[in-house]
Hints:
mainly alpha
Amino acid sequence: MKEYTQLKEHYKFTEEEALILKKLQPRMEKLADTFIDEFYDYIWGFGRTAKYLKNNEIISRHKIKIKAWFINLFSGKYDISYFLSIYKIGEIHVQIGLPTHYVNSAFTFVRTFVLKSIEENFENKEQHVREINAVEKIIDMNLDVLTSSYREEELGKFLSLSRTEKGILSSLKKFNSFINYFLALALGIIAFFAIGLFVYDIYLLFFTDIKIEKGILTVLGSLLVLWASIELIHEEIKHLQGKGFAIGAFIMLAMAALIRKVLIYSLSTEKATELLIIAIVIVALAISYWLVSINKRNSDNN
Length: 302
């Protein structure tokens, strides 16, 4: 419990600020029902709220608890018992798998709602600043304690591993980082060669006896491959920034390479069989790309 006794000290939260919050409580209590209505309008915009608030009974119970928490935010009494109750709320969030993103976003609403009320009841600048400072600190401390539940859950999982498991996990993370950077370098090399292929096809078009229609189609095919390579590099950059692995971009590159062959073979009657096989593969890749895109869209919406 030592960290909770130091929490107010770290945030430089004073007894004077606790008293300021206590004086705000009657006003905030009157706004509690409005707060709940607007809070629910806000969180339903997340898209996946229904996953955690599954029926009317849970919603009703949740509203009561949120309202009590909101009023208690201005209780003026912020001891170990108060912060323990906040920590337990965080533990429940961890148990139901609520993402920390939702918690942080919800606190943005809380902060905005309270500060708006303070602005609407402005009396004098000095008191106004004190109220804002007190509100900012108590909201930040609540968020700190809530998210600490998530940090300790992750730390607990890590500490429960044996030394060998920790070593393997750390090695795999390092190896994964190495592979990602190697892949980024390899994609850069591929893009360089795609540029070379494009330039070579331009050379064939203007300085050899290749037929003009075949040369143009070949150049267009090379340009398509170059475009797909650039798109793949773009997706890999996003992956290195922490976003998901873009399997769709790899499918797109494979389609681009095959389409280039189709453009070239389309002028040859001797390549009918190969052209049919490639066309079937392209259709299969297109279906795969469509399925991946649908799955990604559903994941983003959820």
